[in-house]
Design a protein that fits this description.
With 380 residues, this protein is of the alpha+beta class. Helix content is 40%, strand content 23%. Strand 8 (105-108) and strand 9 form a beta hairpin. The longest helix is centred in the middle third of the chain and has 34 residues, at 183-216.
């Protein structure tokens, strides 16, 4: 296995959900954490996910994360020491200890960060959780968030483009709802929406094309089924046929024409927020929504494995892989294939499970920890 270019060597937590305090050192690329339900395994993965840009694997708000006492969340902090090819790196996040802001703060090597974009240049994480077992049965927003996390790892500026599009759209929606139809003001917001929507769609399309090529070549996916990503989005489709500027013009004109309809509907009918991700099981030729739960999990694993290898080549480091109860719907043969594929990746992987015996094949390859009673302890 090639040494990961991004390696979490130490994790420290203070008042983070069920963890009153934690100071854990990791010395392997494969980290397995076993424990009963409620032992804090997912909380630990969530803490790691919050060291990357975004709201983490649960999408939690600030007040939901701090350890609860007397009906209120305590101030909390999470910090990680990473080994990278450029040298050691410290990332910290949590509530402001001085109380100057209610927003989550970030620090990189002890210095405050002004934006998550700066963090995205250095850190990335991708995850699979049990909640994602419903990814293909529920609404498009969850699939779109999953796609965008994959894109962020390739294009660190993608998060800024998504946020800028959504902010412009929210302001336009507000003005239309209030009946304040100042044409110049609306035109400016629609221009911003069009520019950022096309940038978002272009980044999503670029990731889709590169990832599909990696999946078609079977890179890093081992015995997992071949998959293909499709993006259902008029803007993405337009970019396959026309230059970006033409796509922007068409979207800008469409938004202007839709003002009356969007005011009545309470939201924009066009934009980057209308995209959806379709995952196709290639051997069967069907989309994931028609596959079994086990097949859906296997398809997600294929995508994440290929993505990690792709990002490692493109950026010099693979994202951290956070796999919560990933083996739950995998048969023994596919579980063995997963472990073999993970061991071959240039990525650090954190896996959880309720049964430590599931991780027995990784003895001597990875580190096995137990979680319980607010502690993380070595097993074996």
């Amino acid at each position: 296995m090639t040494a990961p270019g991004l390696f979490l060597a130490r994790l420290r937590l203070t008042n983070f959900r069920s963890w009153r305090g934690l100071d854990a050192a990791f010395g392997a690329s494969l980290i397995c954490i076993a424990g009963e339900n409620g032992a804090g395994k997912t909380n630990l993965l969530e803490a790691i996910s919050l060291l990357a840009p975004g709201r983490g694997l649960r999408g939690a708000r600030m007040g939901e994360v701090g350890r609860q006492e007397a009906g209120a969340g305590l101030p909390w902090a999470a910090a990680g020491r990473f080994e990278t090819r450029a040298g050691p790196m410290e990332i910290g996040t949590g509530t402001d200890p001085e109380g100057a802001t209610e927003r989550r703060i970030y620090r990189l090597d002890g210095q405050a960060l002004r934006s998550q974009g700066m963090l995205a240049e250095r850190m990335a994480a991708v995850w699979i959780t049990p909640q994602m077992d419903r990814l293909f049965q529920e609404g498009a927003s969850g699939r779109r968030r999953f796609l965008d996390r994959l894109v962020w790892a390739l294009e660190p500026g993608h998060a800024r483009e998504v946020a800028a599009h959504d902010n412009a759209m929210a302001e336009r929606n507000r003005l239309l709802a209030e009946g304040r139809a100042d044409p110049a003001w609306l035109a400016g917001l629609e221009d911003a929406m069009a520019r950022h929507a096309v940038a978002v769609a272009a980044a999503r399309r670029a990731l889709m094309l590169r990832l599909n090529a990696a999946l078609a070549a079977g890179r890093a996916t081992g015995a997992f089924p071949a998959a293909r990503l499709d993006i259902t989005c008029p803007i993405t489709a337009a970019l396959a046929e026309t230059p970006a500027l033409a796509a922007e013009d068409a979207l800008r004109q469409g938004l202007a024409a839709d003002r009356r309809r969007d005011a009545a509907a309470g939201g924009a009918a066009r934009g980057a927020h209308k995209a959806d991700l379709v995952l196709v099981h290639m051997p069967k030729g069907i989309s994931a929504e028609f596959c079994s739960t086990g097949e859906q999990k296997a398809l997600l694993v294929s995508v994440v494995l290929a993505h990690a290898a792709l990002i490692a080549e493109a950026r010099g480091f693979a994202p951290l892989l956070l796999l919560d109860e990933v083996a739950a719907h995998l048969d023994p043969t596919r579980r063995e294939a997963l472990f073999a594929a993970l061991a071959a990746l240039p990525a650090q992987v954190f896996m959880t499970g309720t049964d430590a015996e599931v991780f027995a094949p990784l003895a001597g390859i990875g580190q096995l920890f137990g979680a319980g009673e607010g502690r993380l302890f070595a097993l074996g």
